[in-house]
């Protein structure tokens, strides 16, 4: 079976209670750069803080990928409905098509942390992943000190499956990462 199937309907945009998850537009540059340039936002990331050129390259990549459907990786911006400001992004990437397995990642501007936006966006992506997309397993990785990131995973019922020792270098520092995952049959139970 080819996965994702050629006749797959796009599973986005997704509107949640407070957010719109949608494809990026060229005019989103300033909002995206506003968080990509921040030390607190990129603390656990292997990228950043971005120069304007780096953000431009990332955004151009997101715009270019929109020409391809179905595609293995989907990057969506997270727009706050109340302000129409892009406050972050979320990604779902098929890592193993034969086993219908994807991983997920997300980033939010620190202005909006601790409001439940991360959980709201990730829940919506998991609903799409196990609904229209028909995935079997979604996993995500988070630095062991990135409590906000694995806090989202725990709230969504993802299980900590492993802790990888010094598997990633962040600005020259080897970091430990938790691997969390959830299966389709587990997600329907929460
Ligand atoms: C990780 C991130 C997306 C979290 O987003 P968020 O919208 O603040 O997360 P939520 O508000 O949904 O929080 C979910 C849970 O995580 C935990 N949590 C979140 N931030 C926390 C913090 N700073 N300290 C302790 N616990 C935290 C809490 O349990 C929280 O639930 P609660 O508020 O009901 O107690 C955000 O901090 C971020 O963008 N960080 C920078 C980028 C990044 O590290 N991305 C992840 C890479 S793996």
TrEMBL record:
This enzyme's EC code(s): 2.3.-.-
Claim: Electron transport is one of the keywords in the record: no
Catalytic class of the enzyme: transferase
Pfam families the record matches: Acetyltransf_3
Keywords: Acyltransferase, Transferase
Domain of life: Bacteria
SUPFAM superfamilies xrefs: Acyl-CoA N-acyltransferases (Nat)
GO terms of molecular function: acyltransferase activity
Domain N-acetyltransferase as annotated: residue spans: 19-186
Family the entry assigns: Belongs to the acetyltransferase family. RimJ subfamily.
Name of the protein in its database record: GNAT family N-acetyltransferase
Organism: Phenylobacterium conjunctum
């Amino acid at each position: 079976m080819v996965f994702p199937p050629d006749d797959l309907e796009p599973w986005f945009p997704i509107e949640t209670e407070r957010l719109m998850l949608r494809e990026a537009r060229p005019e989103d540059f300033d909002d995206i750069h506003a968080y990509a340039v921040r030390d607190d936002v990129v603390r656990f990331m292997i990228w950043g803080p971005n120069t304007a050129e780096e953000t431009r390259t990332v955004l151009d990549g997101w715009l270019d990928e929109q020409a391809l459907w179905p595609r293995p990786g989907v990057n969506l911006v997270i727009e706050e409905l109340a302000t129409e400001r892009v406050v972050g992004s979320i990604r779902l990437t098929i890592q193993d098509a034969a086993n219908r397995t994807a991983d997920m990642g997300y980033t939010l501007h620190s202005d909006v942390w601790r409001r439940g936006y991360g959980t709201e966006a990730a829940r919506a992506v998991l609903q799409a992943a196990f609904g229209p997309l028909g995935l079997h397993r979604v996993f995500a990785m988070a630095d062991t000190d990135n409590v906000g990131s694995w806090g989202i995973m725990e709230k969504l019922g993802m299980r900590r499956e492993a802790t990888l020792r010094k598997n990633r270098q962040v600005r020259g520092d080897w970091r430990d990462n938790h691997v969390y995952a959830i299966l389709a049959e587990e997600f329907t139970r929460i």
